[in-house]
Amino acid sequence: MLMFKITLFISALLLSLSFTACTSKAQTDVTNSNSQDVSNLLRTLIQKEKEINDLNQKLENCKNSKVKS
Questions:
Q1: Which of 45, 25, 43 is nearest to 33 (CA)?
Q2: What pTM was computed for the model?
Q3: Which whole number is the average pLDDT over 39-52?
Q4: For 1-10, how does the pLDDT look when each residue is reduced to its tens digit (9 = 90+)?
Q5: H helices then E strands: how many in the chain?
Q6: How far apart are CA 8 and CA 22, in angstroms?
Q7: What is the SS3 assignment for 21-39?
Q8: Can you say how many angstroms the Cα of residue 34 is from the centroid of all Cα atoms in its chain?
Q9: If DSSP codes are grouped into helix, strand and coil, which group holds residue 31?
Q10: What share of the chain is helix, strand, coil (3-state, %, to 5)?
Q11: What are the distances in angstroms from CA 33 to CA 37, 38, 40?
């Protein structure tokens, strides 16, 4: 009876450790995925801001050329 309880305890312990490892890996994967998403969004934001700045510069140049005329 004691051997059965020890075996059951060890099995439960190994199962618990296995679930903990899987959960930890899943959380790490989600965190890495979110980090990549944020990096991609920041890269896109920077690119769009550069495009807006270029358009503002062209608009300013056009405005200045009309004022001189």
A1: 25
A2: 0.52
A3: 92
A4: 888 888 888 8
A5: 1, 0
A6: 21
A7: HHHHHHHHHHHHHHHHHHH
A8: 2
A9: helix
A10: 95, 0, 5
A11: 6, 9, 11
